[in-house]
Amino acid sequence: MALDGITISALVHELNTKLTGGRFFKIAQPETDELQITIKQAKEQYKLLISASASLPLVYLTSRSKTAPLTAPNFCMVLRKYLSNAKILDIYQPGLERIIHFKLEHYNEMGDICSKLLIVELMGKHSNIIFTDTDYKIIDSIKHISANVSSVREVLPGRTYFIADTTHKLNPLEISFNDFKTAVCKPMPCAKAIYTSLTGISPMAAQDICFQAAVDGDKSAVALTDTEYSALFTSFSQIIERINIHNYDPVLISQNNIPVEFHSYMPSIYGSTCEYEHYDSISLLLEDYYGKKNLITRIHQKSSDLRRIVQTTLEKDYKKYDLQEKQLKDTKKREKYKLYGELLTAYAHEIPSEVKQASVLNYYTNETIIIPLDAELSAMDNAKKYFEKYGKLKRTFEALESIILETKSEIEHLESLINALDIAVSEDDLKELKEELIQSGYIRRKSSDKKAKYKSKPFHYRSTDGFDIYVGKNNLQNEEITFKLANGGDWWFHSKTFPGSHVIVKTEGKELPDQTFEEAARLAAYYSKGKGQEKVEIDYIERKHVKKVSGAKPGFVIYHTNYSMAISPDITGIQEIL
């Protein structure tokens, strides 16, 4: 979720606790819309990251440093001029706005004490970092907004700073029950009415307020009873009380080990299918959440070229397969043409010349059939023509059977590569996938490139019963774990109908409990293209019964007499070994 006013209130409390009284030690601008400020507080030193990125506005304390450009941008130079060694007097949030004010004290050139404000607005595409004096006269900003860009306000040196009130929302910290009811009573779902009427309340927080009040968030607000409004206000007031007494419980919400949400307190709208990780620091939560999300985004961006190659080839193969299937369907006429030829040969002496059809007895079924004829040809020549058509279609059928199997095999291989791209989590994973594409002939190896060894390793999990489970990230790893890592007595799992990862359970000579079988099957379902299905059918068998076909693509195997189970692709609670 985006940073809402509630989360920012938790962040402001943490920053105040740790930074107030500290001094700016270093100011850097590693990106055009980002600051990193080192702050010394007593014997501690903190790094504060402030980003006004339109896509990812953030403020949090971090232990990581970013490389700054050799020549500092103008905004950074202005801040250094005024705020080097500036003391932090206060950090506060106006109302529940997505805005943080840093009140700072510094000495001017004459040695006099002066005050300044560094204002951080975390408002999506309108995010900004604005430097003003205490009268809110703008000294500079990391983004200059002229009247040509915004008709609401200008953010330029010399202009007066103010918070643009374009939505006319109420301040949740200063609202009575009657104000709440009047503001929310709109002809729209009550959850939406809450977050569109009150500052700093996100859609998720609004849904949680409704859930806590046992009110359907999709019910029209104008249809609510007084009892329901009272329940909503009570639920809402509990959140405001949290803010007032600084009772925060930062939590990261994940599904199948992928972070999906975060909040400054434990929401009630997520069920037991989610994993919850509690943090002592909202900064650490934000850093972890966006770090993981950024990693996923970055890997997807870096995989775009490989994905495009695979997807383009796959689309061509889909079209080729459809055409081949249509041609194969057409060859079904061949037996009819063979029959026509046989019957015309048998009854040629009875068929007059220059007729366009012949009615003859089919001696296989004792039924009369009508055979179209070329009137310019004799019955025997027509028979010869039908035999030629039969022969051509038979040859086409025999060739297509082999070609279609090859095309289908290539499609399955390409679909497995798409799945491998979907589950890649590191650049080494992508390098290994590129190597497979080179080996398969989809990419040419450059003359300067050598086949390299990569650090990419399969996913490693441990079952509840203590058995090690390995999951291949791509076909090369699938082959590695199946035929090199696994012993004959280990168990092998794979989706029956979808391309996906090989999953190996190391038995160490022991008998596997039912729960381990189920957890391994869940992993095989999750790391397959059937991940979005409610249930996925999984085949499982002892590794010694899995065979590799000579000349087949990497990771493609055959097996017989396997067991199967249909299971949910939910890996919640399965321990990953990092």
Over the alpha carbons, how many angstroms does the gyration radius reach?
35 Å
Distance between the termini: 26 Å
Lateral arrangement of strands in the main beta sheet = 22-19-17-18-16-15-23
- What class do helices, strands and sheet pairing give? alpha+beta
User: In percent, how helical is the residue content?
Assistant: 25-40%
Question: Would you count the extended β strands for me?
Answer: 23
Commentary on this structure:
This protein has helices at 5-19, 74-83, 177-184, 190-197, 203-212, 226-245, 282-302, 304-330, 334-347, 379-423, 427-439, 475-485, 514-526, and strands at 23-31, 34-41, 44-51, 58-62, 87-92, 99-107, 113-121, 128-133, 138-141, 251-255, 258-263, 275-278, 357-362, 367-372, 459-462, 468-471, 491-495, 503-505, 536-542, 547-548, 557-558, 563-567, 575-576. It is built from 13 helices and 23 strands. The strands form 6 sheets. Strands 22-19-17-18-16-15-23 form a 7-stranded antiparallel β-sheet, sandwiched between helices. The chain has a 5-stranded antiparallel β-sheet with strand order 5-6-7-8-9, covered by helices on one side. The protein has a 4-stranded antiparallel β-sheet with strand order 1-2-3-4. The protein is an alpha+beta fold. It starts with a helix and ends with a strand.
